[in-house]
Amino acid sequence: MKFVDMDLSEDLVKALNKHKIVEPSEIQARSIPAIMNNHDMLAESETGSGKTLAFAIPMLENLQHKHGHVQAIILCPTRELAKQVAGEFEKFGKHTDLNFLTVYGGVGLEPQMNALPETDIVIGTPGRVLDLMERDALHIDQVEYLVLDEADRMLDMGFIEDIEQIIDATPDTRRTLLYSATIDYRIEVISREYMNNPVLIRAKSQEVRGHLFQGYYVVNPWQKISLLHNLLKQEPKAHALVFCRTIVATDHVARELRQRDIKAEALNGDMSQAKREETIKGFQDRKFNVLVATDVAARGLHIDGITHVFNYDLPDEPETHVHRVGRTARQGADGDAITMLSEDDYRKFDGIMTIYDDEIEKLTFRNWGKLERIPPSPPRDGPRGGGFRGGPGGRSRGPPRGGPRRSPPRR
User: Fold this and answer.
1) Which residues contact 72 (CB under 8 A, 6 or more apart)?
2) Residues in the chain with pLDDT values less than 50
3) Would the pTM count as exceeding 0.70?
């Protein structure tokens, strides 16, 4: 099947062809007819499945500009994803008279408020959408479409109350389209509560994947930065993404790497939108080769050419690990995903090992004695401790002496 066979307007097919999009992906082929026939949609879709066009095409086909009435609202977990989704609407909706507006925090409210009377489709983060509603600037009581994009991630980020408040402000006649990387019990609860007999679709990514190598090192927390530094030194051409649990950790790790002549920058939610965009562009343009980020900040980023993903800290949910390592080994290129495992993370890592069926290889760094002893969080005032004493001194297997006493996860 091709888009030309899907009873779409000639202008939309031409817009797709202009960007060499001729055949729909699996999720597009299954979603578009169902949405066009006014069904709710519950879709499990991986990154690279083409889900944005799956819900954008029916809107571009069915909606026409109406002054003073927002006709569709699309909720995204992060500013970056909202901007990406808006870019797709702009790219393929130029032949329409529809107006699109991206709303998120970190930028001024007034320009967004001024644009709303002529806006047909709002794409934004739950917090800013709710803020505009509470200011009586955004009215969604006449929307025809409500999209929850990457719903699982929005729930992970604690947006459930905001989402419910937004949904309650929409009419019962709306079409609800929910897209999630995984459909768990939380998604099922939302489906039962707010959706009307949704069509269920599970689609795989259409992206050509390269070989993904996964490995882990058993380390003490104070060895992590030194180990990360040594591993990056061995890969001078690496374009690496390092995941940390907290904002403080991203700043600390990036700073310590820079002190060791590694070009690294942090990306976290404390940064202004302008600084976030500048940092992302710098990483894309190869002005530095290591981006240290939290999951919240990195969600929705699509940066080509990432060669390595490092789990400096483990995520709370195994599914988040899947999202992390999915940033590398893309578009046919190979990639490495390396986890730095300390004793406190064994229980979390067992869940990850279950998903990958023991495909993650235990690794041993052969120069334990050279690893510095660096506090895992910003050091207190005063000199930092010297080199680590108590490692196995070059033994080829096993964790450092004095390290985790519990048994590491099974292989």
Assistant:
1) 59, 63, 120, 121, 122, 143, 144, 145, 146, 147
2) 381-406
3) no
